[in-house]
Amino acid sequence: MRARAREAARELLATGQGAEWKTSDDIGAFIEQISRPMIIESSSLRDSTKVRYLQPLDLILGRCGRHPRKAALAGMPIVTAGTYSKLHACLQDIARTHGIGTADHARAVLSKYILRPLVREGVLSGNPLAGERLDLDRSLTSAKVSRGGVAIDAAAHERLLVGLLAMDTAEGVAAPRRGPVTREARVARRENVRIATLIQMTMGLRITEVRTLTWDRVRKVQGSPSIAVPSEIAKNHTSRVVPFLDPRVIEVVEAHRQVCEGIGYVIGSPADRKKLWDKDNAQKAIAELYKEWAVEYEIPELMTERSHVWRATLNMMYLDRVPKVARTAFFGHTAAVSREHYTDLAQVGPMLLEAQRRRAESTH
């Protein structure tokens, strides 16, 4: 994360930000002089990706030939445009005229290429949208997005994994404008999604299994750091033991345990870890962060896919090298080879060996 921040700072300097920006400056000028060049001159973005990121900038500024944009940010001073009310109104306008998907994409681009640079430069104290649930218009959404069976490629998986391992979820989170929710709870909400995703993308647990997981279930089994999934929370009502495939994830989870003092749920309610995190609130938080990460890590699938994507991804990654019986035991599928309890780690040994081989290849 520090390396990424340094790279972003170099990009800002390279695009001509020698002078200090003030809250009275036009947000449109900042977007044209800083945000747009950051995208255009990026050496890490593909040309097609640059086009996808530049389109929301035009909508944010009100440049749309088909619809009048009453809530566009163009012409506003940064201090005004950077308020929650103006940002929400702008995204609501985009949702009503271009659909919720476009608005979600615009929010992600807005956070990464406009608000985050403004926070880094000390012009804004924080990202007003971070941790906020936006109730955006969905009238143009004609059908529910079909999900299931989608996998991301191994390179995208590794890119997100490395990013999440180093991520500081408190970065850019501003204090709430009003209400009982504290900044700490908002940070905890984001950290919950980070921890849950690290577990799911490397271990294949279902979100229900992670959400109801207590700390006593994260322990060594037969000498291997593992998560013991009891039958009462497993989808197929068959308990199993899932070993950690990546030692880096173990370190993050154990550090999280120290912060939580090993009390309550691994990803408990952000306001009270001893309480179960509400299912709907968890799903909303996951959707919000995945859309943000879709832009941050160039994984467009995350704009629509949710946590089930990791089981499909892992299954594809290990398909050719790990026997079906081992994958079935690891993921907890319902199959003829399933038994009442998966406590013999010899069954999932091939998964551990293949994970070790993959890590060795990635370091060379």
From TrEMBL:
The keyword Disulfide bond does not apply. The keyword Transcription regulation does not apply. One of its GO terms (molecular function) is DNA binding. InterPro entries: DNA_brk_join_enz, Integrase-like_cat_sf. GO terms for biological process: DNA integration; DNA recombination. Signal peptide: none annotated. Keywords: DNA recombination. This is Tyr recombinase domain-containing protein. The lineage of its organism: Bacteria, Bacillati, Actinomycetota, Actinomycetes, Micrococcales.
